[in-house]
């Protein structure tokens, strides 16, 4: 735990507000910028400074996940203006340690070896806990959107990476009949060892039926060809980042409901997600002696 240090928290969604709260709760000096449109009652005891003052008084700067969505401006959905990385922010930086999620574009804009840039999203320990929040969010959507229970339902999980592994286990523990679709032979073997049925949705020869389908792959795996063979009684929950993994036009034509659901930790569990971010930042500071 880092104590008596100054942190500047810039932009982001409700996760960033929770990051600021957690840092302050731990005894650090905290200020924020770019969260102006969050209700004032949520910002109690959180100091807001202008960008120049915040950067100059902070030992560490915490950026959102993702740091930017357009490669130009800081991701700041609760800010009425823009925070341009190259022109508004970079000239103010000195030698601070910077933390953010998916930070490559910002690092390229900074291009300053004196500044310590750290991507907490690139760490396996962060990704595992983030996958758990995503999986729980997916189940929450399924329970809200479907008229059936998870128990005894036939579920297909497309992709067996971090999220796919956690989600499959969570569904199985709730009594679902889980099938995993994976192309990598190693993933197929692990899925079988863990007690799941396996298929390759790109090599279907006959119709298959599922109550719920969860996609975790950020490529259009559920395309026109296999959507005609997969009979889905409830919905597809697409957890992948843009462009997603579902041919939504075909799904709509077939009467299949698709729920696009990227970024669930920030939407459903900002407090838990913010805590994970802070804990990961503390680990980086300690490991790198920043």
Number of domains: 2
CATH class of the largest domain: Alpha Beta
CATH topology of the largest domain: Rossmann fold
Decide which structural class fits the backbone. alpha/beta
Which regions contain 5 or more consecutive residues with pLDDT less than 50?
none
Helix content: 25-40%
Summarize the model shown:
37% of the residues lie in helices and 20% in strands. The protein is an alpha/beta fold and 290 residues long.
Explain the overall architecture.
This protein has 290 residues and is of the alpha/beta class. It has 2 domains: 6-122, Rossmann fold; 126-267, Rossmann fold (3-Layer(aba) Sandwich). 37% of the residues lie in helices and 20% in strands. The protein has helices spanning 14-25, 51-56, 85-89, 104-110, 124-145, 162-173, 185-193, 224-227, 248-253, 264-268, 270-288; strands at residues 6-10, 29-33, 47-48, 60-62, 97-100, 116-119, 154-158, 177-181, 197-199, 208-215, 230-238, 257-260. A 6-stranded parallel β-sheet has the order 3-2-1-4-5-6. Strands 9-8-7-10-11-12 form a 6-stranded parallel β-sheet. The chain is elongated, with a radius of gyration of 21 Å. The mean pLDDT is 92.
